[in-house]
Amino acid sequence: MTNTPVPRREASETTPPMDTLVIHGGIDGDERTGAVSVPIYQASTFKQDGLGRMRGYEYSRTGNPTREALEHLIADLEQGRHGFAFASGMAAITAVLMLLHTGDEVLISDNVYGGTFRVLDQVLDSFDLRYRIVDTSDLDALAAAVGEHTVALLIESPANPLLTVTDIEAAAEVGHRNGLLVIVDNTFMSPYLQRPLTLGADIVLHSATKYLGGHSDLVAGLVAVRDAELAKRLAFIQNATGGVAGPFDSWLLIRGIKTLAVRMDRHLGNAETVARFLRSRADEGGSGVGRVYWPGFEDFPGHDVQARQADGFGAIVSFELGEGYGVDAFLSALELVTLAESLGGVESLACHPATMTHAAMPREIRERVGITNNLIRLSVGIENADGIVADIAQALVAARPSER
Q: Is residue 113 among the annotated active site residues?
C-alpha cells in the first residue's frame, strides 16, 4: 500500500444522522467474516506475493486495516474525504504544522491548549516556524494580525480553558481572503456537536484521547480534510515521520466512538447543571465562586455564535475560586471529581490550568489572556449530576479561608 490516502465518499442527503453514523460510519464490521466489529490487525508487516505485488498493505506504519477503518470513520464524521490517525493529539498537531515551512508564521487562538503553545514555542522554533497569539474571536484583530509571512490560522473554539468562542465560518473567510490555511482544533466539541470542515476550515484535528475515546484508556489524535492534494501531503508526513496510531488503540477508539452520541448527550446535561450551580453561587457573592465560563449562558460572549455553529455548548466548565479560597484545598477535598490532566472521559475531572495544562505558557501570557492561578477547569462526566454538584459544594466549604 502506498501512502496515498483512500478518497472517501462525499456527504449527501443520504448520509445517516450523527447518532447512527458514529456506529456505522467508516468501515462497518468485517466483510470477509461477517464480524460486526472491525478486527484488530496486530501486525507490523504483511506478506507480498512477489515484487510489487501486495494485498493492499505492506507495513503498518504506512497502512494498517484497523487504523484505516478509524481513518475512514473520522472522515465520515467530520464530513471530510480523508482521515488520518496518530499516536496522540500532539502528534496530529505536529504533523499538521509540518505542512508549513521555515520562516512561516501561524496565528493561534489566545487561550490555546498549552501543549500546542509548547510545541510551537519550544520545538518548532528551532526550525524558525513562528507564531503569533491573537484573539480569534475578534475578527478585526484577526485580520490586522495577518503579516507578510503569515500562512496559517489555528483556531480552538471553544478555546482551552476559557471557552472563548470564535466564529469559525467568519474566521475562515478572513483566513482564506488572506491566503491562509485554516486549521481548527475540534477536541472540545467532537464532530457530534461541531463540524468545522462544513464551516470552511481546511483541516480539523482532535485529541481523540478526549471525547472520541471517552474512557480515559487510550491516547490518540485524528485529522480530517476534504482537499485531495492536502491529504496527499499529510499522508506523506504521517508515513515519513511515523507518529501513527497502533492497531489496538485504533480499535479501542472505534469502540469508544460508537457510544459518542449517548455519552455526549449525558455530558451536556450534566455540564449545564454544574454550570448553573456555579453561577448561582457566584451570584450570591462571598460563596467561593467568581466568574464562571460556559458558552451556554445567554450573556456569555459568543453564546449566539456557538448556538449557530454547533449543536451544543460543550461539557467543559471553568470557574474562578473566590478571593481567599484555597485552590489546593478545593482540589484536595474533591472526592467524586478526580484531580487529573485530560478531559472528555466518562468520569468528572478537575484541572488547574496554570500549573497543569498551561504550565508551559509563560506566566505573563497566561495572566494576560485570563488564565489566573485561581482558575479551575472542570470536565463534567456522566455520573449522577446531583452527586457532582454535591462534591463541588463540599469542596468549596473545605476551601473557605476559615477552614484552612
A: yes
Domain ranges of the chain: 18-257, 260-403
Q: What are phi and psi of 201, to 5 degrees?
A: -65, 150
- H/E stretch holding 117 reads helix 114-118
Concerning whether 61 is annotated as a catalytic residue, the answer is: yes
Short-list 231, 319, 340, CA closest to 275 = 319
Pairing assessment for the beta strands 105-109 and 150-156 based on DSSP bridges: parallel
CA–CA distance, 185 with 189 (Å, rounded to integer)? 9
Catalytic residue among 8, 130, 210, 279: 210
CB contact set of 70 (below 8 Å; sequence gap of 6+): 26, 83, 85, 222, 245, 250, 253, 254
Residues contacting 132, CB < 8 A, separation 6+: 105, 106, 107, 108, 145, 147, 150
Q: How many distinct helices (H) and strands (E) make up the chain?
A: 14, 14
What pLDDT digit, counting tens, does each position of 118-136 carry? 999 999 999 999 999 999 9
Check 185, 202, 249, 391 and give the catalytic one: 185
pLDDT at 239: 97
- CATH number belonging to the domain at 260-403, selected among 3.40.1710.10, 3.90.1150.10, 3.30.930.10, 3.30.1780.10: 3.90.1150.10
Distance CA 202, CA 225 (A): 6
CATH topology classification for 18-257: Aspartate Aminotransferase; domain 2 (3.40.640)
For residue 239, give the H/E element and its range: helix 228-241
- The position carrying cell 496522540 is 88
Is the Cβ–Cβ distance between 380 and 267 less than 8 Å? yes
Q: Dig out the grid coordinates for 386 from the structure.
A: 446531583
Catalytic residue among 61, 258, 276, 291: 61
315 near 380, Cβ under 8 Å? yes
Could you tell me the pTM of the whole model?
Answer: 0.94
pLDDT one-digit tens code per residue, 57-92: 999 999 999 999 999 999 999 999 999 999 999 999
Q: How far apart are CA 121 and CA 210, in angstroms?
A: 24
What is the separation of C-alpha 174 from the centre of its chain, rounded to a whole number of angstroms? 22
* 132 DSSP β-pair partners: 107
Catalytic residue among 8, 81, 104, 113: 113
**Cα distance between the two ends of the chain:** 63
Task: Judge residue 236's burial from the number of C-beta atoms within 10 Å of its C-beta, 0-12 exposed, 13-18 middle, 19 or more buried.
Answer: middle
CB 168 within 8 A of CB 201: yes
